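Honest question from a wet-lab person: if I give you the sequences of every part of a complex, can you actually get the arrangement of the whole thing, not just the pieces? Trying it with mine:
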Amino acid sequence: MDRDLVERARSGDQEAFADLVHQISDTLFGIARRILRDPELAEDVLQNALVTIWRKLPGLREADRFEGWAFRILVNTCYAEAPRNRRWASTVRELPIDQVDLADDMRTIHDRDELERAFRRLPLDQRAVFVLHHHVGLPLVAVAETLGIPDGTARSRLHYATRALRAAFDEARVAPIPLQGEQLA
Amino acid sequence: MTIDDREFWRATDDWLEAGSDRTPPDAIDGVLLAIRTTRQERALPRPVRPTTMTLLSRVAIAAVAVVAIAFAWTRLAPSQAGVGGIATPSPSPSPIVTPSPTPTPVPISSKNSTPGDPLQAGVRYATTADFPVRLSFVAPPGWVANIGGLFAVWTGPAATGDNVSFQRSMTVNLNPCNLASGTVPLGTSASDLVNAIVSRPGLAPNPPTSTTLGGQPATLLRLALDRTRACPGGTAPYTLWQLPGGATNPMEVDMSERVWVVDTTAGPLVVLAVDRPYELPAVQQLLDSIEINP
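Yes, you can. This is the full assembly:
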């Protein structure tokens, strides 16, 4: 992240902040989309988080820590917005069943569907640790720092999330693959 | 890693990375429009100490500082016994470099930030009114500290921040593998807490020992998990206790912890040291420097 850009935005430069937004928005959107499993809600959360980042930017002490600080605001916004949004609970994933021709593809879709179901059952704090660690690639210590939790807590949340996904995956492997056209979601 | 593991992680990566991360342009336009009318929150200016002082004022302030240091010395004077009951030379504030004229010990100022505020190596830090047990310790190089609220103070290297913690008001889980199982009814003394901890299933047998910490009588527990009995199936982390604010202390099979339990007027105080091998010398240095004023 461009330190100069962060410092200019911190001092109130709206153009610098616009450049920052263009640099970081896809990353933030990707994180929110993965945690919330709903692109529309992720878009709302991203907007709220970016406005919060703008408001609170003068309070950021070290420009070099902008990215982790922005991740933290984004995740906190996910926590705040998700329970208030009915779409979150009612979103149903539609799978392109009619495009599946091969058994391997069916297996892949079946695996993904089971992982998706398991992930949606997880609390948001476990999802956040999993996404920051496995999608963003942050070490667990950095995840803990980003989220403001002890590293043992980050470790246990990751443990729970991985365990749930693994159980779902193992179950999917022993369950019969649904036939084409069968409702998965 | 087994073939099953590899298949699991390949499938998980495929699933996690599916879809587009491209931010819809309308979303960015909306944000840029919003910030035009959104004011930034400016930090309040820090109070500035008057720069013009009379000679009399300077003398008076210096005298107050000397009295405060002398008072702190008498209140927090270290005992002659070190950690584990072994007689060791107590740390003395005299060789510690402290920024003059700041009185020692320095209050821990960081609250609810992660990993905490940096500490100055060699300086003695004390808890503030946020944490109702008065104690102090000398900071090892590169450590941070953080008051989590009424119930905990965390300190450790900046990378982890929690190697040593001071905790109170915890509830002990009946079954550390199943938090829904309820909590152990606890009395108000250190021995009640010790008995509740050591009787939890899954811990490797290790009897408590009497010792001293920070000049106070303490009970030392060496906690490690019994590999064959801790959380069968690995379905949950082993969690002995939690604090009222929700913080927990999950243990893993290869982890060992030392826990001292000390009676104080604010109830049992737990001093917990996570024994990560590469940080042991710094942890021991801090433990040896602890002074508790119960």
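Two things worth pointing out. Helices of chain B lie at 3-17, 25-36, 55-75, 190-198, 280-289. The longest strand of chain B covers residues 216-224.
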